[in-house]
Design a protein that fits this description.
3-stranded mixed beta sheet; 15 helices; flat
């Protein structure tokens, strides 16, 4: 699936450090603005204890997790919508991703320059101002997109009359709700739109319509508590737009990513008061925000997690394995991962009457274990 999560934020907030820890790719993380110009791209395995569990049951030769594509996009500053700080290029990179992980600096460090309005001047740490700076630039870019489309719509309505006005009724009503938000520096996704209105503006690919969540990059002193005064500010802001917040320490995650031994990793996390890596939470949050879900296949050769869209039917899910499976779909044998936990084996699930046969209209549920019957 051509789906990706863009990592955005002001310069020097820890985007590239987090990306490098996520992907183990050599993204630049030097302490100067715009060290990331071309977006770095990395594929990240999605941590999923359900796959670990099903593998413990089947003991396969191979275990294959689902994955998430991340794009590390260079830092935005005030004026990006007008091309400042290579703004046009960065906005184009954001336009190409499915969802946004907005990294916010939530730590003090006088040795790391914090940039907001001017790439050459240090700014005080202020999470809300940082968020507003990024969101305003995206909002200004969206307002420009709407303005250009509105000119075309107005001309068409003048030329073709009431029938054309009816055609654009949903578009006009959607824009009437979206524009005031954008002019206030808020996101288009906050607008209360009907399905018709959403469909009417979909082809504009508004930047602030993309689903987004905030990543609070804290220092090591805040790891165990999972919060600090800066994080509280971000949580309050995110709550207003119904966005998720992930808290992690980029430096800690970077150090953790270099530890390959699982026992040592666990000990390192426990010493910091963590049960799992913050990056695991980040990856799962991005995956869910993109509207993705997981089903599993299990056997002695391989246990695998497969990625589908929420709402996909059984034939569509079968097609993720092979197009022939979708074309010749007959039925799906199914049970839930929860039933596998409860009963311990497929045989016991069948005995309990929990083993199901599903047809073409079945909507696959997150956590289903499926075996497809097909005929080509």
């Amino acid at each position: 699936m051509a789906l990706s999560c863009g990592i955005v934020g002001l310069p020097n907030v820890g985007k590239s450090t987090i990306f490098t820890a996520l992907t183990a790719a050599p993204a630049a993380a030097e302490n100067f603005p715009f060290c990331t110009i071309d977006p770095n791209i990395g594929i990240v395995d999605l941590p999923d204890e359900r796959l670990d569990f099903i593998s413990s049951v089947f003991q396969p030769k191979k275990k294959t997790p689902a994955s998430v594509k991340f794009v590390d996009i260079a830092g935005l500053i005030k004026g990006a919508a007008n091309g400042e700080g290579l703004g046009n290029q960065f906005l184009a990179n954001i336009r190409e991703v499915t969802c946004i992980a907005h990294v916010v600096r939530c730590f003090d460090n006088p040795d790391i320059m914090h940039v907001r309005d001017n790439a050459n001047e240090s700014a005080p740490i202020d999470p809300e101002s940082d968020i507003l700076t990024i969101n305003m630039e995206l909002a200004l870019a969206d307002l420009d997109t709407i303005r250009k489309r509105q000119e075309k719509v107005t001309k068409a309505c003048r030329a073709l009359g009431k029938e054309e006005e009816k055609k654009y009724a949903a578009w006009n009503s959607a824009v009437a709700k979206i524009k005031p938000l954008l002019e206030d520096g808020k996101c288009a996704r906050m607008a209360d739109l009907s399905d018709d209105e959403k469909n009417a503006v979909q082809d504009m690919f508004l930047l602030t319509m993309k689903p987004a969540f905030y990543v609070c990059n804290v220092d090591e002193d805040a790891i165990s508590a999972g919060t600090n005064a800066y994080v509280d500010v971000v949580r309050k802001y995110a709550a207003e737009e119904h966005s998720d917040v992930v808290v992690l320490c980029g430096k800690f995650e970077s150090d953790l990513s270099e530890i390959t031994d699982e026992a040592d990793r666990k000990e390192f996390m426990e010493a910091a008061g963590l049960k799992e890596s913050g990056l695991n939470v980040l990856a799962r949050t991005a995956y869910a925000l993109m509207g993705l879900r997981t089903f599993f296949t299990g056997g002695s050769d391989e246990c695998r997690a497969w990625t589908i869209h929420a709402g996909d039917t059984a034939p569509k899910a079968a097609g993720t394995i092979h197009t022939d499976f979708e074309k010749g779909f007959i039925k799906a044998e199914a049970y839930s991962i929860d039933d596998l936990r409860k009963y311990g084996s497929e045989a016991k699930i069948k005995e309990a009457g929990r083993y199901r046969l599903e047809g073409r209209d079945y909507v696959v549920q997150d956590g289903d274990v499926l075996f497809f019957k097909f005929n080509v």
